[in-house]
């Protein structure tokens, strides 16, 4: 399993991911995010891309739209990592088609990503990819 729930405290869930993201992993992460949305109503998500290898090339992605039903309840998505992933992350999340604020920060601007994410008073789920 390339992800691990590291810590849950109040409204924050810390999840560590590693390697390639598979369709099955993605579906499990969506279920976890939905649980947070059901509990808190609206969330912000921080994804740190560390050692990220991209997405698997398997069938099933065509049926996996990123938080299709509840995406409007994610107020912000901040990605932090190697800038080579920026365009693919924006394409994967459908940035141009969403109301959710989605930003990408280079690794050296991690603290700026956290500050940007906390600008509004919503609950947070932190995802760590690494």
Structure, described:
The chain has one domain (3-129): Transcription Regulator spoIIAA. The chain has helices at residues 23-40, 86-93, 110-117; strands at 3-9, 12-17, 19-21, 43-49, 52-55, 74-81, 101-106, 123-129. Strand 6, helix 2 and strand 7 (101-106) form a beta-alpha-beta unit. The model has no long low-confidence stretch (mean pLDDT 79). It has three helices and eight strands. The strands form two sheets. A six-stranded mixed sheet has the order 1-2-8-4-6-7, with helices on both faces. It is globular, with a radius of gyration of 14 Å. It is an alpha/beta fold and 130 residues long. The longest helix is centred in the N-terminal third of the chain and has 18 residues, at 23-40.
Counting structural domains, the number is 1
The span between the termini is 12 Å
Radius of gyration: 14 Å
Q: What order do the SSEs take from the amino end to the carboxyl end, as H and E?
A: EEEHEEEHEHE
- Average of the residue pLDDT scores: 79
Task: Outline the low-pLDDT stretches.
Answer: none
Shape: globular
Describe the largest sheet.
6 strands, mixed
What CATH calls the topology is Transcription Regulator spoIIAA
Jot down its keywords.
130 residues; Transcription Regulator spoIIAA; alpha/beta; 6-stranded mixed β-sheet
How do the strands and helices of this protein lay out in sequence?
Elements: E1 3-9, E2 12-17, E3 19-21, H1 23-40, E4 43-49, E5 52-55, E6 74-81, H2 86-93, E7 101-106, H3 110-117, E8 123-129
Parallel strand pairs: 2-8, 3-5, 4-6, 4-8, 6-7
Antiparallel strand pairs: 1-2
């Amino acid at each position: 399993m390339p992800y691990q729930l590291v810590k849950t405290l109040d409204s924050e869930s810390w999840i560590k991911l590693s390697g390639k993201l598979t369709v099955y992993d993605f579906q499990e992460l969506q279920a976890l995010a939905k649980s947070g949305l059901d509990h808190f109503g609206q969330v912000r998500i921080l994804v740190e891309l560390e050692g990220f290898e991209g997405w698997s090339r398997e069938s099933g992605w065509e049926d996996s739209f990123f938080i299709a039903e509840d995406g409007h309840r994610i107020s912000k998505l901040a990605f932090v990592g190697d800038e080579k992933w920026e365009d693919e992350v924006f394409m994967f999340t459908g940035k141009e088609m969403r109301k959710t604020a989605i930003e990408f920060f280079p690794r050296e601007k991690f603290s700026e990503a956290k500050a940007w994410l906390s600008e509004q008073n919503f609950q947070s789920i932190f995802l760590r990819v690494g």
